[in-house]
Amino acid sequence: MPEPILELRDVKTHFPVHRGLLFKQQAGTVKAVDGVTLSLGRGEVLGLVGESGCGKSTLARTILQLVPTTGGAVILEGKNLTQGSEMEVREVRRDLQMVFQDPYASLNPRKTVFDTLAEPLRVHRICAAEAVSARVSDLLTRVGLAPRLMKKYPHEFSGGQRQRIAIARALALNPKVIVADEPVSALDVSIQAQILNLLSSLCRTMDLSLIFIAHDLSVVKHISDRVAVMYLGKIVELGPAVDVIERPSHPYTRALISAIPRHDPEVERGRRRIVLPGDPPSPINPPAGCTFHPRCPYAQERCKAAFPPMIGVAPGHEAACVRIGEI
Predict the structure, then answer these.
(1) How far apart are CA 293 and CA 168, in angstroms?
(2) pTM for the complete prediction?
(3) I need a surface site. Which of 158, 200, 254, 310 has the fewest CB within 10 A?
């Protein structure tokens, strides 16, 4: 793996749940992210996948310190963001940017494209005042938009164009890491391909590291070097994208991949879908041991004892399952 630029060490993000109007009492804790350990190499694209509600978006916001960590460490180039002051974290945010899922909600409808892209340049003093317009033009050109559009407002663009503007805003400060939280889920299939190709091209030409969050494994395979599979706040499988998607080891990963539709009608007719029983457990009261065992068709009594460690399957490929090699 390339030299790590970002490391997550046993990161936890818990939210207290209160009840009562006048005398509030803590009724429980939502364990949205519960002990995630990951690393991101320089120039690497890491795909993060899982069901809705598994903690992907919370992990993304935790990495950027938009929500505070309950435990663990987020380390960017040797700097522990969880222990830094507000000013230190603000400085580091130049190197760590985010692209949100809904491009319209993430753009200020009262600001033109020029104002949206010029604001970070002015706040962080990236360039002289007289060079701001040229810099905004360059950003728009990089993401495939004409500079003449900079005086328009977000409502005048299509969904794909708005997402390009959001990507341009993320690039404005010359970041080293971008976290993209389901950036194509709200777009048409043809536009999804354009945005994915744009992100791939930017990563190559600008030497960017990218965490790409999605629930569509076919999309993740197209863009990612490695894939991490998340379930109920924990990583259950991690490895090269081709290995994880074509040779999955964890039962949960197998179920996700079985849901990917095939383009060949003959193959689709013969495809066997793995349907998991029940719903994901509540993150307020997760099951003991392996959190997946209530839905796992291969669960045994030992699966209820403790959450299994990551076990090596192949070089760089590991999964959190005590029955690796048995199923």
Answers:
(1) 43
(2) 0.92
(3) 158
For 111-134, what is each residue's pLDDT tens digit? 999 999 999 999 888 888 899 999
Residue 63 near residue 6 (C-beta atoms within 8 A): yes
The residue count of the chain comes to 327
CA gap 11, 62 in Å, rounded: 9
Instruction: Show the tokens assigned to 213.
Output: 């969050």
Please give the Cα distance from 275 to 141 (Å, whole number). 45
Helix (H, G, I), strand (E, B) or coil at 130: helix
Q: What is the pLDDT of residue 274?
A: 80
Rounded to the nearest 5°, which phi and psi values hold at 151? Answer: -95, 5
Going by C-alpha positions, the residue among 89, 97, 88 that lies closest to residue 209 is: 97
Residues of the chain with pLDDT under 70: 1-2, 263-264, 267-268, 270
Q: How far apart are CA 258 and CA 79, in angstroms?
A: 40
Positions of E strands within 103-233: 177-181, 209-214, 226-231
Who contacts 292 (Cβ-Cβ below 8 Å, separation ≥6)?
Answer: 231, 232, 236, 250, 251, 252, 299
For residue 282, what are its two tokens? Answer: 């509540």
- Measured distance CA(37)–CA(320) in Å, rounded: 12
283: left (phi over 0), alpha (psi -120 to 50) or beta: alpha
pLDDT at position 309 is: 92
Query: Can you give the pLDDT at residue 96?
Result: 93
pLDDT of residue 279: 81
115 contacts: CB under 8 Å, gap ≥ 6: 108
Task: Give the whole-angstrom CA distance, residue 256 versus residue 81.
Answer: 33
Distances (CA, A) of 322 to 38, 239, 318, 327: 20, 17, 11, 10
Question: DSSP letter at 211?
Answer: E
Please give the distance of CA 8 from its chain centroid, rounded to a whole number: 13
Q: How far is CA 197 from CA 90, 101, 189, 210, 224, in A?
A: 30, 17, 13, 13, 12
